[in-house]
């Protein structure tokens, strides 16, 4: 009963549920699972691009080797037949000493039958670009609707700043990111603030303006910091989002501004570990022990009742 009351108190403290909510909510753990899925896709895309780069480089090296072997064979045949350079050709017609070093083949190569080769185009085709730093097309748009100063101090990684005051504008109140995600299949918009004080009104406004794929992050930054103390948030948390015991024991530390815009491998590992701690109850062992104890107790009670009934049956049977 005490744990049930503790859960009720946690809901009253960290969440602001209302009966007439017109928007949808998303748990922090659900959002984190989405983040992990996007990170997994990014890793697969990176591996595929890297493999394609290796294949293209391998093919380019093979093509250059074939071209060098062909040119060497032509020079050998030319020397064996006793054909020198044509006196009709001037020194400038020969170009660079080796045909493969010039952007285009020389006139001498054309006369020999090699033809005109655009070496620049081939070499450009060999250079497959390294996978860029741009993330894979993300299925979610995360918006921090607090003021810009609060956003720059701390926010959830990958979040963009969209102050709630922009909703009161009569025009130009939608960014290009919002327009790109509005009611698009496979896309969602997630907004949050510090503790649901302004996010609920902002979410209702978005829904009234036609956003059907919008969610509010339940609990906001405060619950996100409680459940995922490392890896999810960048910067220095505001005092209301810090653990109570830390706030009492330690003096205010120097504020470090939020600088991360993408998750690192270390962040993903920390988030995954915190997610496992959230999904697996801390008292699961005690629950199992209690259930096994209850089962053994009920089994012993049943066996005792059976023994008692058999004994009573023996004593109540007529004497023969």
Low-confidence stretches: 86-95, 116-136, 288-295, 297-303, 305-320
Query: pLDDT average, as an integer?
Result: 74
Strand order of the largest sheet: 1-6-5-2-4
CA radius of gyration: 35 Å
Summarize the amount of helix as a percent range. 40-55%
**DSSP strand count:** 7
Structural class: alpha/beta
| Helix-strand string | HEHHHHEHEEHEHEHEHHH
Strand content: 5-15%
Number of helices: 12
- Biggest sheet statistics: 5 strands, parallel
Distance between the termini: 56 Å
Can you put this structure into words, describing what you see?
The chain is 52% helix and 8% strand. With 320 residues, the chain is an alpha/beta fold. The protein has a five-stranded parallel beta sheet. The chain has a two-stranded antiparallel sheet with strand order 3-7. β5, α8 and β6 form a beta-alpha-beta unit. α2 runs antiparallel to α5. The longest helix is centred in the first third of the chain and has 53 residues.
Write the layout of secondary structure elements.
Blueprint: H1 2-14, E1 24-26, H2 28-80, H3 91-94, H4 107-111, H5 119-126, E2 140-144, H6 148-153, E3 154-156, E4 160-161, H7 176-181, E5 188-192, H8 199-208, E6 214-217, H9 220-227, E7 233-235, H10 244-249, H11 265-279, H12 284-316
Parallel strand pairs: 1-6, 2-4, 2-5, 5-6
Antiparallel strand pairs: 3-7
Helix pairs in contact: 2-5, 2-11
């Amino acid at each position: 009963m005490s744990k049930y009351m503790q859960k009720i108190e946690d809901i009253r403290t960290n969440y602001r549920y209302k009966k007439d909510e017109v928007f949808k909510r998303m748990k922090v753990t659900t959002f984190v699972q989405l983040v992990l899925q996007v990170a997994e896709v990014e890793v697969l895309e990176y591996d595929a691009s890297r493999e394609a780069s290796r294949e293209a480089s391998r093919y380019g090296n093979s093509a250059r080797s074939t071209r060098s072997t062909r040119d060497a064979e032509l020079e050998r045949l030319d020397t064996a037949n006793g054909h020198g350079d044509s006196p009709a050709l001037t020194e400038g017609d020969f170009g660079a000493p080796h045909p493969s070093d010039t952007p285009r083949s020389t006139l001498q190569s054309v006369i020999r039958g090699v033809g005109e080769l655009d070496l620049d185009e081939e070499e450009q085709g060999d250079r497959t670009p390294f996978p860029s730093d741009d993330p894979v097309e993300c299925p979610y748009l995360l918006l921090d609707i607090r003021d810009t100063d609060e956003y720059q101090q701390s926010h959830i990684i990958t979040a963009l700043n969209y102050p709630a005051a922009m909703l009161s504008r009569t025009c130009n109140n939608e960014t290009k990111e919002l327009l790109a995600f509005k009611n698009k299949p496979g896309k969602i918009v997630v907004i949050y603030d510090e503790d649901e004080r302004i996010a609920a009104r902002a979410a209702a406004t978005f829904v009234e303006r036609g956003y059907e794929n919008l969610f509010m992050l339940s609990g906001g930054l405060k619950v996100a910091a409680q459940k995922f103390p490392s890896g999810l948030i960048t910067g220095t948390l505001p005092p209301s989002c810090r653990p109570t015991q830390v706030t009492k024991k330690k003096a205010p530390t120097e504020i470090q501004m939020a600088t991360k815009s993408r998750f690192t491998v270390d962040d993903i590992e920390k988030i995954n570990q915190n997610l496992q701690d959230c999904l697996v109850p801390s008292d699961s062992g005690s629950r199992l022990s209690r259930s096994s104890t209850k089962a053994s107790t009920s089994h012993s009670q049943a066996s005792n009742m059976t023994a008692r009934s058999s004994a009573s049956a023996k004593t109540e049977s007529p004497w023969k």
